[in-house]
Write a structure and sequence with these properties.
five-stranded antiparallel β-sheet, alpha+beta, rod-shaped, about 25% helix, 2 helices
Length: about 140
């Protein structure tokens, strides 16, 4: 076996990793450096930034809610009451993985398209009945 460090004591003559050799045997003229360098991830291409950002956003998304018959019946009762007697409402609905709320006035229900037409700040908005979670 080849002696790599001839000037060192016997256990360190064959050592190739300088970190395993005590500092008193190492050359003092060699700079120590930054000691522990922490690894930090980075994106080398702009597409990586977009992809990583998309992954982070997807983690926050919520699956579309599925309701049982009782919940749908309760939602329908509240909708009927709001539609005929008390049009202003606060509607919580699901859209593209997120829950959103809208303060609006219920205008009408389109049974052909299963959409609820509401008016928010003078603008007409159509909400799918499958996505409405709560009406107050």
């Amino acid at each position: 076996m080849k002696i790599i460090n001839p000037g060192l004591p016997e256990p360190y003559k064959y050592e190739t990793d300088y970190r395993k050799i005590p500092s008193k045997y190492l050359n003092k003229d060699i700079p120590k450096g930054r000691t522990m360098i922490k690894w930090q991830p980075f994106a080398t291409m702009p597409q990586q930034y977009e992809t990583i950002k998309g992954f982070i956003e997807d983690q926050n998304k919520v699956a579309k809610p599925v309701f049982d018959e009782q919940t749908l019946r309760d939602l329908n009762d509240v909708l009927a009451q709001k539609l005929f007697y008390d049009p202003p409402a606060l509607i919580k609905y699901w859209e593209n993985g997120y829950y959103k709320s809208i303060e609006c006035e219920i205008n009408r229900f389109d049974s052909e398209r299963n959409k609820l037409e509401v008016i928010e700040n003078g603008e007409r908005v159509l909400l799918s009945m499958d996505c409405i979670v709560e009406i107050e």
